[in-house]
Amino acid sequence: MLRxxxxxxxxxxxLKKVFSKPEKASVYYRQTMHEMVYLGLNSVGIITVISxxxxxxxxxxxxxxxxxxxxxxxxxxxxxxxxxxxxFSSTIxxxxxxxxxxxxxxxxxxxxxxxxxxxxxxxxxVNSASYLIxxxxxxxxxxxxxxxxxxxxxxxxxxxIAGTSAGVITSEDYVYGIQYAFIPYYVTYAIIxxxxxxxxxxxxxxxxxxxxxxxxxxxxxxxxxxxVFSSVLILxxxxxxxxxxxx
Amino acid sequence: MIRVxxxxxxxxxxxxxTDISVSFEPGKTNLIIGRSGSGKTVLLKSIVGLHDIxxxxxxxxxxxxxxxxxRGKKEIRKEMGMLFQGSALFDSLTVEQNVRFPLDMFxxxxxxxxxxxxxxxxxxxxxxxxxxxxxSELSGGMKKRVAIARAIALxxxxxxxxxxxxxxxxxxxxxxxDLIKEITEEYAMTTIVNTHDMNSVMKIGEKIIFLSDxxxxxxxxxxxxLSSDNNTLNDFVFANALAKQLRITLxxxxxxN
Lengths: 247, 257
What we know:
heterodimer
C-alpha cells in the first residue's frame, strides 16, 4: 500500500514538472509535430487494419446471433454501429495503442534515462520531463481522437463489406441500420473516452520510462509495466466514464 | 570557481561521500581520481546537482548552488557543459542537431548564426563533414568530441567530464585530454574531470584530488603525485606493471637509497 502511494505521489509530482512553463515554445511546437507523426500518423495503418476486421466480425456475429424472423435485418447494421461507437473504437483502439505507443514511449524515455541523455538535458538547464513528455501528451490528445474517428469509419465499412459479402445483410439494410436511431452524443462519448485513454497511455508509459534505474533489462521491464498498467487503467476508467457519461 | 564544503552523500543509509571539502580553480583542469566505486561520479553528479546531497555546501562563485530551487539551478546550469561517460548524445538527432540543441533552446540567434556556431564548435573538436551523421554512425572518440562540441556550444563557465577516456584507445584518449585542456585554457573555464586513467592524470592534472572509499585522501598536482608518501594513493598510482617499475626506479633514485 505504501509503495502504491509513493508511486502515485511520484506520478503526480512528475505531472507537475511536465506541465510547467516550457523553455521555448517554438522548440516544443516542433517536437509536438514530430510526435504527432511518430505516435499518431504511424499508428493509422494498424488502427485501420484492426478496425476493419473488428467491424467485419461484429457484423457477422450480430447476424448469426440474431437469426430470427422477428428481428429486422437492418438491426445488424445498428448493432454494428453502436458496438463500434460505444466500445470498440475507443476502448479496443486504446488497448492496442497502449501496446504499441505505450511500450514505445516507455522504452524510448527509459533508454534515454539509462544512457544519461536525460541527465544531459538537465545539465543544460532543460526541464527534461516537460521537454520529453509534454509534446507526447499533446500529440496523442490531438491525434488519438482522429484515430478513433478513423476506426469508427473503417469499422463500419468493414462491417458492410463482411455483411454483404457473406450475404447476411443487404447493402440497403445495412446502410439503413447504421443511420437508424442514431444518437450523435455517442460520438462525443467515444471522443471523451479517447481523450482520457490517450492521457493515461502517454503519462503512465512516460512515468515508467522516466523512472527507470539500471540497464536494458530494466528498460524492458518498464516497457512491460507501462503496457500492463495503462491497459488496466484504461479498463478501469472505461467503467467509470461509461457510468458518468451514459447514466 | 567551484567550492565544495563538508559534502556528505549516502544511498539507502550507506555513506558514499564523507566530509569532502575542495576548491576547483578556474582556467585549470581539476581532476578527481580514484578507484572504481570510490565515489568520483557521485561527487561530480552532486556538484552539478544531479544528486541531492545529505549535508554540506556547493558554491558556484558566490552562489550557494545546493540551496537554489529548480529555477535558480536552471540559470546556473545554462553556464555548465558536461561530457558524460557514454557521451549521452541524443540518439534521434544528427551531429549538427545535437550541437545545435542548446542554441535552439536558449538563444534567439538566427538559423545562419546557429549553423555558424555549430560548424565552429565541430571544427574546434576536429569533426569535419559529419554534420548529418547520427550518433550510431560515429566511433567512440568521435562521439566524445561531438559531446564536447555540444558542451561548449553556449560558451560555458564550467565544464564537467565524467571519465572522458573510458573505452578509448590510448592515442584517442590523449587527443581528448589535449582537447579538454586546450578548451579549458582558451575559455578560462572551471573544468572538473573524473578519471582513473593515469595518462590523463600526468598530462592534464593541474589540480588533483584523490578519493578512496568516499573520503578525500590526497590533494595536489601532477608534479607532486609521484613523490607522495600517501600509501593509498601510491597503491592506485603505481597499480600497473609499468608504473610499478617506475616506482622501483624512483625509490632507488631517492637520496639515501
